[in-house]
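Backbone geometry:

***
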Amino acid sequence: MAVIDEVKFDKNGLVPAVLVDKDGNVLMLAYMNREAFLKTIETGKATFFSRSRQKLWTKGEESGNFMEVLEIFLDCDGDALTIKVNPKGPACHTGRRSCFFRKLEGDRWKIIMKQEFNPKEIYKE
């Protein structure tokens, strides 16, 4: 049995993948289809399926902030992945190290991380 056969993709053919750095800090959440999973293994760079654009994308293809894959973990149910990465820059398209930069404090979200780059200088939108 191939390792991919043990991954339970949902009805849309996707599996959630949580990216963490070597210290266990959560950087981002994205989704993989079979092709993205196989490309990630083949290239060593985290690759996903964009649900909004309906296409594959490799994290860092525009910004240069690639996520070099160190290890891949499959959860007990086979329906979620954690991918340990060596980030080559901030993970978030907002210019922050992590996509999880807002913390609930009382009845509001507080930004707890500063930007490391200006997204307007990097992304074509």
Notes: The mean pLDDT is 94. DSSP finds one helix and eight strands in the chain. Helices lie at 34-43.
